[in-house]
Design goal:
two-stranded antiparallel ribbon; 113 residues; 45% helix; mainly alpha
């Protein structure tokens, strides 16, 4: 059924119902995120989220990481420290050539071009 302005009433109802459902479900998306909506200028507030590791496991991992010679260099800047090094089978030149080919093929844009 269309009104005099040409708007389909059923489409408007469906869109309104969909928007209402999305608004009603949105708080559930934040249920496990460690945040909750408090409104106003504050917006979101962090709250405690239970961990999956025991305190002893976390302390053991920390002690192991602190034994690494790289610990001071990374921790000084507040950068998360990864104990595992990632090695690749490709050389730097192979990766560079792959990137150049991707740019030529239009898979990567540089500077919004």
């Amino acid at each position: 059924m269309k009104t005099t302005t040409g708007v389909d009433v059923m489409q408007v109802r469906k869109l309104t119902l969909t928007a209402a459902l999305l608004i009603a479900v949105a708080p559930a998306a934040f249920a496990t995120s460690g945040t909750r909506w408090v409104g106003g200028d504050a917006g979101f507030e962090l709250h405690h989220m239970p961990g999956t590791k025991s305190r002893a496991e976390v302390k053991a991992e920390l002690a192991e990481a602190q034994k690494s010679p790289e610990w001071d260099r990374w921790a000084r800047f507040g950068i998360p420290f990864s104990q595992k090094s990632v090695a690749t089978a490709r050389s730097r030149e192979e990766v560079r050539l792959e990137a150049v080919e991707a740019v030529r093929a239009g898979q990567i844009s540089i500077g919004g071009m």
